[in-house]
Design a protein that fits this description.
It is globular, with a radius of gyration of 24 Å. Helix content is 56%, strand content 9%. It has 17 helices and seven strands. The structure holds guanosine-5'-triphosphate and magnesium ion (MG).
Length: 376
């Protein structure tokens, strides 16, 4: 690890925001030297915070929070999550459902209970948009200004495959920087509920009242992934419609297989704007976290997620590294000719590339010559 990375890592453990921001940027980089540093960094901060926790050593208070005088102030209310484990909360739902408005409201309530809250946006489709929309989408004015909150509003530029692949790392970094609640907002559509569920403890799906055909079609997928559903905007002229939507979703829920035997997903009526239903929602979040911590479900899910991310990372790296091998590139160029001439089937060509990759990684001399020899 370079001196710069070490300084960033120590700064992060010391709860310095700018160090956390730079560490996140490092883990999201696709440059080879950055990737190497990021892997060392992740290892270092996770070990260090594990040791600190074991020793019961409290990290230094956040400089900004201390300066504002709020960091050590007695919280007005008791904490919501008391198992000693962090809470990773995923929020998904169609565009405009009120996810950001809800996160702002919940985040401020959690801070009043003494929690430190990090908000991480995930846009599984950001490789299409370049992630540039995120900056606007994630503005949470009150929360992002609070010393006990961290909202990562800056978009990730130039990362192939979207930022979802880094979400697990970003969550861990936030936790190591002393945030005990990490909220992940999905900005994407479609697969996002399922993707996000690979990174969080609890998935809350927020839906607006009503909903057209597309929402009806998406309903089954949403229901299967959700641990909780909230019908938002149950206020003003939408109040009645929200009640109908809730009944509708509750009805569908009866046919969905439970994700965990000890947890029955429910549909809650809510208004992020007026605060209606937020007490009930908070109490559901607390019950879920306590129940899952106690029965071991939380740890079990996190282990499964770690395995999922490990293999995901492994696959991505294998593909990248094999594509960069000179022998594989030369063989691919040759196969391209054969494909054009119709002399080789794509499936067979892929097999030849795989053979070449495996041969070179097992240390056997290979390359175009060897591959050509095999073709004869
Ligand atoms: N009436 C009413 N409007 C709400 C409520 N919550 C959010 N809104 C409004 O709905 C619009 C969208 O809210 P956002 O919080 O940006 O929704 P979002 O789900 O984060 O949207 P995307 O990030 O674009 O997917 C805004 O105009 C909000 O003011 C609510 O409880 N009641
Ligand atoms: Mg939003």
């Amino acid at each position: 690890m370079t001196d710069t990375t070490l300084a960033l890592a120590d700064g992060l453990i010391d709860r310095q925001r700018h160090c956390l921001a730079r560490c996140i940027t490092l883990t999201e980089s696709s440059r080879d030297d950055h990737k190497e540093q990021a892997a060392l960094l992740m290892d270092y901060v996770m070990k260090k915070s594990y040791e600190n926790k074991k020793r019961g050593k409290a990290p230094a208070p956040a400089a900004a929070a201390a300066a504002s005088g709020t960091a050590n102030a007695e919280p007005a209310l008791p904490p919501l999550f008391t198992s000693g484990k962090t809470m990773r909360l995923g929020i998904a739902g169609p565009p405009g459902a009120g996810k950001s408005t809800f996160i702002e409201a919940l985040g401020m309530r959690l801070i009043a209970r003494g929690h430190r809250v990090a908000v991480v946006p995930v846009d599984p489709s950001s490789h299409i948009s370049g992630g540039s929309i995120l900056g606007d989408k994630t503005r949470m004015d009150e929360l992002s200004k609070h010393p006990n909150a961290y909202v990562r509003a800056s978009p990730t530029r130039g990362v192939l495959g979207g930022i979802a692949e880094h979400t697990a790392d970003v969550i861990s970094l936030c936790e190591c920087a002393g945030y005990d609640v990490v909220i992940v907002e999905s900005v994407g559509l479609g697969q996002s509920e399922v993707d996000i569920d690979h990174a969080v403890d609890l998935l809350l799906v927020i839906v607006p009242p009503g909903g057209g055909d597309s929402l009806q079609a998406a309903k089954k997928g949403i229901m299967e992934a959700a641990d909780l559903v909230a019908v938002n905007k149950a206020d003003g002229s939408l109040a009645m419609q929200a009640k109908h939507t809730r009944a509708d979703y509750s009805g569908s829920m009866a046919f969905i297989r439970r994700k965990h035997p000890l947890w029955k997903p429910e549909v809650i009526l809510m208004s992020a704007r007026t605060g209606l239903g937020l007490d009930q929602l908070e109490s559901k979040l607390a019950t879920f976290h306590a129940t899952m911590s106690e029965c071991g479900g939380l740890v079990e899910k996190r282990v499964k997620q770690s395995v999922h991310w490990m293999w995901g990372q492994y696959r991505r790296e294998i593909v990248l590294k094999s594509e960069q091998q000179a022998g594989v590139q030369a063989l691919a160029a040759q196969l391209l000719l054969h494909l054009k001439q119709g002399r080789v089937a794509p499936r067979a060509a892929a097999g030849k590339l795989l053979d070449a990759t495996l041969r070179s990684s097992s240390g056997v001399a290979e390359g175009v010559g060897a591959a050509q020899h095999k073709q004869k």
